[in-house]
Every structure is written in C-alpha cells, then in structure tokens.
Structures
1.
Amino acid sequence: MENVEIQTPQPTIPVTQIPEPVSINHTATIDRDQRDTIGEIRVVEPRMRCTDVSVYYSGEQAINNVSLDIGNNEVIALIGPSGCGKSTFLRCLNRMNDTIANCRVNGEIMMDGYDINAKHIDVVPLRAQVGMVFQKPNPFPKSIWENIAFGPSIHGLVQSKSELDDIVESSLKKAGLWNEVKDRLDQPGTSLSGGQQQRLCIARTIAVGPEVILMDEPCSALDPIATARIEDLIDELREQFAICIVTHSMQQAARVSQRIAYFHLGDLIEVGDTQAVFTKPRHQLTEDYITGRFG
Amino acid sequence: MHRSLEGHTAHRYDGELNSLHLQMLEMGGLVMDQVNLALQSLHDRSATLAQNVVEREHEVDQLERKMDNDLVAVIAKRAPVARDLRVIIAISKATTDLERIGDEAARIANLALAIYDSDTALPGKNLMRDVGIMGQQVTAMLHESLESFDTLDAKRAAMLICKDNELEIEFQSSLRRLATYLLEDARNVGHAIHTVLMIRSIERIGDHARNLAEYIVYIIQGKDIRHNHAAYCETDAGADEK
C-alpha cells in the first residue's frame, strides 16, 4: 500500500476572508457620563408613584428629579455609594425629611390617589401607612407587649384589650418572633438580642397595618444568622406589603429584592430587574459600583 | 493584565481575576500544543510524538483541577457579579472545553499509535488527505479563539462564530469521500475507521473552539448565543464593546 504524505498543520495560519458581521443593535453598556435614568421606572398598579422628586438641604440639591414606582408585593432595593441620596429618597416616602431643618422636597409622591407632600396630609397616619425600620433596632424602653401595642392604641385601631392581644400575637407571628417571646411578653424589649430587637421593630411596624415598609439598612448591625432571619422575613412580608430597602450589601440586595434602583450623586442612574442588574447592568456606573470598582 | 478585569477597589481581586485568565490561556497553550503534536505525529508518522501527547494528557487534567479550585476560591471570597461573574462562568466553561480538546488530541494520538506503532500497512494517501486539511483548519480556529480570549475581543470572536463553518463542511465532504473509497475497495476498512475517528475528533475540537468564542461574546456583551448563532450574527455580532 502506498505511504502517505499528509499536509502539515500550520497553527499560526490567519483566518482569512471572514466577512465583517453586520452591526444593527447596539447593546453596549451605557457610558458613565449619561445621567438619565436607564430602565423601567414604572410598574403596573404601583403602591407609590414618585415623579420628579428633588430634595434640597439648605439649598444644596441632594436628589435630582428622581421618578420611580414602588410596586405592590415587591421588594425594591435602593443601592449606591455613600452620599448618593438613597436614604434621603427613602425618607421622602413617609416624609421623614420633614424632621430635618432646611430640608425641602419638590416633586410628586402619589399614594392611594393623593400626594403625600400635600399640605393637608397628616404625617402621623401617613407614617403608620408607610412604616419604617431603621439601621439600629430601636425598641421602646417598655415591655415586648407594649412595644407592639403602643402603635395600634394611639392610632385608635382597637376597641378592647383582647383585640390588642390579637394584634400583638399576629404581628409577632408575622415577624417570626412569637415562638421566641410568647412566654415573656412582659419583659423589656431591650432585653432581646439584636436580631430579635430588629424583628420586634418590624412587628411594631406591622402592628399598625402599613401598606409600605421602608427599611434603612435593617441588617447592618446584625450578625449573619440574625441577618438571614430578617432576610427570610422580608421575603415573607413581601406577600402582604410593598417593601423598599436601602442596603450597602450587594449580596443582600441580590438575595431579597426583585427590583434594583441604583443611585449616584443624587441621580437615579439605573432601575431594573435584580437578576438582570446583577448579571448584566446596562449602565457603566452601575457595573463599576456593584463589581466593587468604586464606592 | 487585561483592562476589563481591573479597576476593583480591592486590588487583589484584579490579581485573582487576571490570574484565572492567565491560567486559562496557559491551559489553552498546552492544549494547542497537544493538538499540534498529535497532528504532527500523523504528518511525521511518528509513534514517539504520539506517545508524548498521550503521556502529557495528565498535565491538562491537572490544570483543569487547579483552575476549578481557584475558581471556587474566587467565587467564595468575592461573590462576583455582573462582568466579573460572567468572566468566572466563562472561564469555568472554557476550562471544560479545553480539557475536552485535550482529550480529543490524545484520542488522535492514540489512533496515530494504532497506525504507526504496528506492523500493519500504512494507510493510503487518499484516506489521510482530509485529516491534514481539517487539521490545518482546526488549528487556525483554535488559535483564533485563544487569541480572542487573550484580548477579550468580542468582535474577533463574533467573526469566528459567524463565518461559514468550513470545518463542518469539510467533515461532511470527507465522510462522503471515505464512503466512496470503501465502496471501491473494502480492504480499506480498517484505516478508514481510523480516519473517520480522527476527523470526528478534529471536528469536535472545532466545536470546542467555537464554544470558546461564544464565551467571549458572553463576557463582553452579556449574550448567551449558544445554539442561536443565526439570530446573533444577523443582528448583534458587530455591536460595540466596552
């Protein structure tokens, strides 16, 4: 049989005569200089609708014309570097900025058909409707039972002691704390662990029947186990409430939220589905921040 | 260091990503060498060269295990997101493809041993003709995809993905030719089987090279274009990258 002489492979042969691919859709990341909000700021049947919200501290603009919907039964996470305006925006949602001297809020924040910034709006029922959980647990220096019962009592939500007992029990159950405290309701709230105190504060917020719960870094003072409990709780509460959370933990934002809003220097830069933002953000600033390139 | 992998506030993270990238390219270089050597052993009719390829296969496997370990460590430490996450996923998948290319190179080398390290007659020129042609094509493809991975150049990767798959065309033609030879002379059957297995391995190496190009598109453009080249090539292949 004839011996063969096969052709020698040449590994460095250039790939030639390749046609240039056609360019139609530009899908690249949005440039850092672009300050308009990228992504869908509106949702169907929002619980709150913010339009062109600007906040000024002593004439200094802290938030620039932010428009964003807070959807029903969703957790929206506000993220961004320190000083970007996310907490300021959060506080606008139940007029907590009213307590800051020389703070002015412009724009419209609609809820149930009215603008919460209108002069005739009473902030006390508003803050029951839009409850808030803070960075550090802040139980009242009272018993566990009184911590929960205080809100419904002053808002006149109950007629009798037994009704109040029911609210205390159901609120603590919703906050996942009932089994741990049911036998010591008369003990001070401050005697609980940090994680339990934070869940007590969440129960206190729930007790007055809110529609929206605002959370400003609710786990930053907690250990990983307590954090995991709160995150589980947030996921359960989402079935009944709209939740808006500020967090510095990217992993927490990825775990608990369905939508992400990224703020930078007072501008709302990007809004999007959480999975999309964490796998392929559209704005370069978002990418730089969540990948730890600044902030 | 590649710019796309840099810029983290934690500089060590830059180093870890770049290290993974470099290790993957090192593995690519080794695998490329294995493919070249396997094809060279056919060209030179050298059982020694083929034996070298078979013996070096474990080096590829070792690199794969090390890469997997390092990838797990970076994921555990850094919880990567966005492009960093895509880089990690792409490198992980590319590592698997490279290991399989290494397997195919060893398979070709074993076939070369079966032919040249035995007392049987050598195969005819016509039977082996296509192995050389397809070998040239596949080494060019692999070289191109590894270069694109080196520079993370999605446009270059897109060109590889979107051009006609000449290797596949050649593979199909080759199968038809081999069938004809067998019909002409059934005594060719032993070497024809060897040849079919060789070109099948070469064709698979080509598929893996194209997979590597797909991962580059995934890293840079965030698009999963597996099994959907046509739509991508008609629309997004030329999109600018950042």
2.
Amino acid sequence: MSVPSPLGTTLRVIGLSHHKAPVALRERLAFRAEDISKALSGILAHGFHEAVILSTCNRVEVYSVAGEGGDAAARLRGYLSEYHGVPEHEFAPALYDHKGADAIRHLFEVASSLDSQILGETEILAQAKDAYRVSVESGACGPTLRSVFERAFFISKEVRADGGIGRSQASVSSAAVGLAKKLFELENRKVLVVGTGEMATGIVRALKSAGVAEIWVASRTEERAQEFAKREGGNPCHMRHLEEYLTKVDIVLVSSAAPHFIIGPKEILAVAQKRRNRTLCLIDISVPRNVDPAVHKLDDTFLYDIDDLEGVARDGKMERETVAAHWLPKLAEAAREQMRVLHGSEPRETAKKLLEHAEAARVEIAREHSRGMDAKSAEALCRALERLQGKLLHGPLDTLKQSAREGGGADASAWVSRLFRLQMETNAESAVAEGETQPPVARSAPPDDPPKRTLDDRAPKTAPENPPPRGEASGGDVAFAGN
Amino acid sequence: MTQDILAYGALASFILGAVAAIAGFRYEAFKRPGWQFVLAGLGALLKTAAIGEACKSGTTHFFNSVSDIYGLMAWALALSYLLALFVSRARSLGALALPAVAALMALSIVSDKTQTQMATPPALFATHIICAFLGYGLFLTACSASVLYLEQNRLLKRKTFGVLFQDLPSLERLEWLEILCSRLGLLIFTVALATGIEMAAKSSGVNWFDWKILSTVVTWLVFFLLVTGRALRWINGRTAAKCVLAGAALVLITFMLGHPAEKKTTAGRIPGYRFRDRRAA
C-alpha cells in the first residue's frame, strides 16, 4: 500500500480571483489588512499548520499547509464562509483549489504578475511580500510556505527582468483613459482622485498625458494627498469637500482603502443640478468598491470598476497570452523543482535527526556501561555499539536515500520519524529569524492510519554482511543522490 | 443618357463607400475615414454633375419627378454626411448614412422619371427645393448621429466593449455632431419653409391645414425647440437624441407627404402652387 505524499496533499491554495469571481463577490471575501493576523489565527485553529492570506483587489487566496486527516479544502471553505458570513454556495463555484506543485506554480504565476489584470504590475509582488510578512509575524508561516514564498519572490524578479512583461504594465491605465475617451475628449477636463496608490498613479499619469487640465487629490490623510498632488502635479483637497469637487470635475478616480461606499447615488444626485447634467465618468479601482454601483444607473453618469477596465484592455490580453506562452511552462517546471526540493530535503533532515538520536542513545549506553571498565574494554564496547548502530540504521537510512532518489522522500521521512519518534523542526519563526538559505523541511505528520506494512517491507530482512563504514552510518551529514 | 451614366457612377461610388464603412468595423485597412470620404465625395460629385446636366435642359426639367426627389434626397444626405465626416471624423457614421444614400440613389434610378410640368416656375423655386432637401439631409445626418449616440450610450451603460464600441466615436463628439447638424439643418430648413410659404402666398394663399404644411411646420418646431432647449441646457444626452429621432421621423413623414407618396394622388408640389401634368398636356 502506498502512503500519500504529505506535501502533495497538505500544501494547497484556495482562493478566487478576477478570472472567475466578479468584484462584487471578491469584495465580500476580501480580508481587511488589519484583520489578517486574526484570520490567520483562526485558520491555524482549524487544524492547519501554516497559512498565508493574500487579499488584494484582484484576488483572495489562502495558502496553507494542513495536517493529515479530514478534508482541508472543506475546512478552509467553511472557514471563509464563517469568517465573512457569506454562504459557501455563493462563492464555491468561483473558487480554485490547487495542491502540491500546482499550488506552488500558482503562487509563482501570481507573484510574477502573470495572473494579474495588469501584466507586469509590481504591486502584486509587494502585496505578496506583505502577506508573507504578516504571516511570519503572526507565527502562521512555517518552513514549507517560507521556502515556497521566498522562491516565488526570487522567480518573480527573474520573470520581470525578462523585459517583455513590463510593456503592458500600463494596460489598465490606458484602458481607463480609453473608456473616458469614449465619453468625451479629454483635453481640458478636470479630474478628482480619491485615494492614492500605484494603480491610481498610473491612471493619473495616463490621463495627464491625454491632456486633462486639472487634477485634485483627496485622501483620508492630508499628507498623502499633498504628497501625491505634489508628485503628480495636482492640487490636494479634503474629503470633506467632496461634493464641491464633484460639481466641478468630469472624471472621478477612486482608489481608496475605505471598506464602504464613499460615493453613492445620493451624492451624485445632490450635485446633478449644479453640474447641469454634464457627463460624469467614475473609475473605481478599489476593492472593496468605494462607489455604489447604483450610480451607473443614473443618467449621464458612468461608473467603471477594475473588472470593466480589464474588459477594455484587449491589447493587454494579447500580450498576456504571448508572455504566458513563454513563461508558464518554465514556472511549472520551477514549481516541480521546488516540490522536489521540499521532498528531497525532508529525508536528509530526517536522516540527520535519526543519526543524532541514535548517537545520543549510543553515547548514553556507552557511558553507563563503561564505568569501572579498563580503557581497552571501554574502547571495545564503544566500537561494538557503533557497529550495532551502523547495522541497525543501515536499513532506514538506505530506505530514506532510495526514496529521496525516487521522489517519495517525504513519505519515507514520515514513517521513519514516526517509528523512531523523531522530533521534527517545527518552529517556523526561529527558522525565519535565522535566515537559513537551505530549503527547510516540510513539517510532515505521520499518517493517522495504522501502517499495514511492516518495517521488514522496507528494511532488508537480514543485516548486511558488510556493514557500512562508520562515517556513513554512524554520524555526520548524509549525502543523498536524490538531492 | 449622360445623366443616367453619371447617376450609375454615383450609385456605384455610394455602394462602395457603404461597403468600406461597414468593412471598417472588421478590417483595419478600412478604418481610416479617407476611403469613405473619397468614395462618398466622388458619388456626390457625380450626382452634382447629373443635376447640372438636368439643369442644362432649362425649363423642361422641374426636379419634381419621383426619381428626382429620391435623387435629390440622396444627394442632400451625401453632402450632409460629407460635412459631418469632415468636421467630426466619425467614420462609423458612414455605416448608417451611406447605405441609406445608396438605397435612395438606387430608388432614384429605378423610379418614375416623369416630370410634372409647371406653367411658370417661381423665382424662389430653386432656393426652396435645394434648401428643403439640404435641410432633410442635415436632419437625417443628425438622426444618424443620434442613433450612434444612443447605441454608444447603451454599450457604455451595459459595459459591452466589443468591436462596435471600439469603433464608435465618443458620446461628446456624436452629441456635438448632432447639435451641429440640427442647428445647420434648422437654419436651412427655415429658409426652405419661408420660401415655400412665400411662393404659396404669391400664388393662391397658404393652406395651413394642408398635411404637408402641417408636418413641415411641426418638424421645424420640433427642431427649433430641440436647438433652443440644447442651447439653454434644458435637454441633453439621451433625451435630446430621442427628440432628434422624433424629428427625423417627422422629416420622413414630411418628405413622403410632400413628394413621392403624394405624387401619384395630388401631384407632389409646392404647397398651393398649381401644376399642369405634363403627361396630360
């Protein structure tokens, strides 16, 4: 009977993105930045060992490493439903669930912006790094996710350095300008920017180069508005005077982090008379949305959100296909490689621990029984114990080596750890703090099912005639061909 | 004979122009408005030459046969379209206007060419006819712009960003085109109305209850209110575009009452002016 590979079943990502979930759904499942630590604790309390929550305007994803037993995906879905108060059946069809290498590949694509609306955007990398940092600080990030995320950050740099990807970075900005141009000529128009951010910056720059005359910037914090206005050549204004500016402007670009609607039909109707029915274009790129979708139903008022912009950015899509065709196979291979690293490192660590465990036991026994012995007898006892240790461990170590070569290292590690009651490295925080460069060991709990095969199935039935040399079996690092 | 050749040439140009306008939605090569400008311009030029040829016949041609009426309408619409294309570069307008021009031109070629002879054509007759048809043409061009405006508005509201959406001009440009054509059309139509009333008054008096006069006056009123309402910002956007559509429907009614439909029954004519049927003579 084959035991399922622990990493293959426990590392997974569940989430929804702009591909299948409309912004109306995404905003209901979005995590507020200040609540993510709490949410991570909640996930760990549901039987997960590690978790990272990536919640951006385009996606809500939970990367997790679960313990064995139970349906981890169902638990995560249930948690999302419970946390956000959204019935599971409402978001389940839009959810994706990737496991093992697929989950790693997905993260690589996300971090490299190949899965983003704006191909080549850098914001997603910063958001992924933030999500990872919050998870580490909350103690929810273990060695597996740490290794995978760090690799993803490295790969994303490689992808961006390729050059081809950056060209379409402005696709959403140009889509916003393109949409506005379908309403009116942009020369001498006035723009109000509510909230600041990288994407807002891009759109404002595109609007400016299209000829808009004046830009006002409103933000919750006056300093940010001033800084943005100074940088982009606009005028800062206060959120309190929103109505006054709504009367003046032709385009309103909303990119704030407010969890509620800032502009609704009431605000628009209040200024309609003063505007004398001039067309008003609202572009809301925030998630959750900050402009009530009901304003789009009003006459002479047009509202477009982040999903609509993608609909317009057709050129970006074509470019995405070209870049994706080039990079996706490479990322898939990198994900498989990462999976092999995770699997391969596990038996090595297990072997090391097994040897340390046996060494400690041998030294203890030798110390106890060599009391009162002369030096020669003590030396003979030590040698005998070393030989015994070598003979006993040869089987398990050989199995670990072989399974690492064949790709079943994690499985073998789990069994060996359980049989010898080895304590695996579990402190993710310490691992992160130490800044290790080697991929860490995946925390693999042994299967709950009682093993139906015996140790004899794996270990040689008889001790080898020629025991391994001392250096190989009785201590020190073990070099694995599979690594 | 020369008139016929010129008319066929004009028809061919208008058809090619219409094909180019429609192909522009699909093929990049036809997206430039130059194709339509050249083809529609050539068609209008040939039609103008055909009218010039007819004018050479002096008093024997009165521009009141069914064929003439359709032909003049096609010519006026083509000129209005060329003006609109020149000022707005709204290429997609051709997809509506040029097929209509080609259809009118084809109708002109196949329909009855019998003239209703006038005893003495009044001095204002030429001004009246030209202004009336140019007014119709401009109103119909405003109507085309309104149709495109409403369609673009619908696409923007429904967030349907397809090929048509990409190809249509901005709402502002379409609205401006509609305003321009309505204002210009109203001005020219006012001249046509005034000259018509003047001619009728000089002959046998104006019959204000004549259907044609009524519909002409109502059409004028609708466009007058529309232009005034727009200037005073009472109406705009979709409401104004719908008003233009209503006005264009009235233009068609006026056109049909005044010309081809009425021709067979009451001898299509200038209101109140007595005609002598050439065939009867």
